[in-house]
Amino acid sequence: MKKATNLFAKLAKKSAESALKRDANSTTCGAVYQPQAPKSLKQFSKIEK
Questions:
Q1: Model-level pTM greater than 0.70?
Q2: What secondary structure, in 3-state letters, does 2-18 show?
């Protein structure tokens, strides 16, 4: 019984570590900021409103 528990603990630890490594290397967080364009740029727009 102790071998099975020890084996399960090792597998759980290895699984958790690999999941954390994968998530840490692939998850990103970012913010996008797009300021308002100046009104003087309106003359270059091809869209007429």
A1: no
A2: HHHHHHHHHHHHHHHHH
